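Um, can you check?
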Amino acid sequence: MTLLDVMLWGVLPYVMVVVLVGGTIWRYRYDKFGWTTRSSELYESRLLRIGSPLFHFGILVVVIGHVIGLLIPESWTSAIGLTEQGYHVQAFVLGGIAGICTLVGLGILIYRRRTTGPVFRATTRNDKLMYVVLVAAIVAGLATTLLGAGGGEEHNYRDSVSPWFRSLFVLQPDIESMARSSLAFKIHTLIGMALFALWPFTRLVHAFTAPIGYLFRPYIVYRSRTGGRPPRRGWERVS
């Protein structure tokens, strides 16, 4: 274990978390009006209807796959009768399909953004950088999925990357486990950390927003009468 390993796998993850959390708080406090995807459906909808579902559903499956692979220990899946070979086969099939859908959907969205004038003009420099890092993360993820399906100790991320990832939550990073993983998994992990560090400063921040207020607001908001009691806000009930 070298000093570089300590910096990359023992220090950098926590730096990334500080940037992610701090940047998100800063963005919410000082840029509420910019906390949006800056919807561009008005300018072009044909490609958007194809690319957006492909990307969003694909990335959802990718996220679920990462949660299962990184957080659930191998002993748990073995306890329910899922062999290690069976796990890697289903991870390869589902992960490969989801990764390809995500990459194709993102490619369509990038093509649309580049070729539609008003949409391209609304793209910030941070968003352009985000697209580059996002594409790199997806490509690297597909590569590691292919390597993981091949098996072997070097490419079994559940014996290296997963223990390291879980150790971060108890503030005792298992640097040695991550250090012995293959180069492809290290590159994918570094790109992933870069993506999360950029997250608060791009349009991806909208993923942290849930329209909870819509569950409680009335279907129709009436204007109050002039004079008398002060006007109520739309979500307040009439006593």
The longest helix spans residues 84-115.
